[in-house]
Write a structure and sequence with these properties.
14-stranded antiparallel sheet; 17 strands; globular
């Protein structure tokens, strides 16, 4: 008998008029040591992007490894594997020119990783202090696979530190039900709002709702199946 838990859910991408512009089905396995693996496929209708992400984190939601494959109009943009250690980040893959690429960056342990899977964006704030009185809290170092808002570029190692502000514990209604939630905002170093998000107030940190100012878009939990 396997000891892991499984969670299946789906996130809708919505424009500011509520029109569906994409979907992200997700499957998460949580293991007995607290580590977890998410498998998320982002299907973005208006930009014709399909992004497959398999992302592993430890019990503290710190990155272990991540595979990202990105297609645009069914043409391969990038297929890349990232590996995170206490002292380095490694990248190996194939770029848009179908060339094998490799990269190594010496750095302290990464606190989080931006894979551009929407479902994993709520994991960046797993370790902040959940008190409004704390104000802005720095999350560093954070790295990203791409500098583009939709992540649709050749994958490389980019530094992308964040600051998080805990707003409140609240309840939020979604098509998948009503949940106890954490409300958190992420800011970039220039003080601009990067993301506003709500996730379940539990160890699973399932994304319930998110607002992304760059696209003036909302992301909303549509279906959930968990034990």
């Amino acid at each position: 008998m396997l000891k892991h838990r499984e969670i299946k859910y789906s996130i809708d991408y919505l424009d500011n008029n509520g029109k569906k512009r994409g979907v992200e089905p997700c499957f998460v396995s949580i293991h007995s040591d607290g580590s977890r693996v998410i498998r998320a496929t982002s299907k973005i209708f208006d930009t014709k992007i399909i992004r497959d992400v398999i992302y592993s984190v430890d019990s503290n939601f710190k990155p272990v490894d991540c595979f990202i494959k990105i297609r645009e109009n069914d043409k391969l943009i990038s297929s890349t594997f990232f590996c995170f250690t206490e002292k380095c980040i490694y990248l190996n893959g194939i770029n848009s020119e179908k060339k094998v690429v490799g990269e190594k960056l010496n750095t302290e342990r990464s606190e989080s990783f931006i894979s551009h899977a929407v479902s994993a964006d709520v994991w960046h704030s797993a370790n902040i202090i959940k008190k409004n009185s704390e104000g802005m809290q720095k999350i560093s170092p954070v790295y990203s696979s791409s500098p583009l808002p939709n992540g649709a570029s050749d994958s490389k190692i980019h530094r992308w530190d964040l600051r998080a502000k805990f707003i409140e514990f609240t309840k939020i209604k979604t098509p998948a039900g009503i949940f106890d939630a954490e409300h958190i905002q992420y800011y970039e170093n220039n003080n601009s709002l990067w993301l506003e998000m709500w996730c379940t107030n539990d160890i699973d940190r399932i994304m319930l709702k998110m607002y992304y100012p760059v696209y003036d878009s909302y992301y909303l939990l549509n279906e959930l199946d968990r034990a």
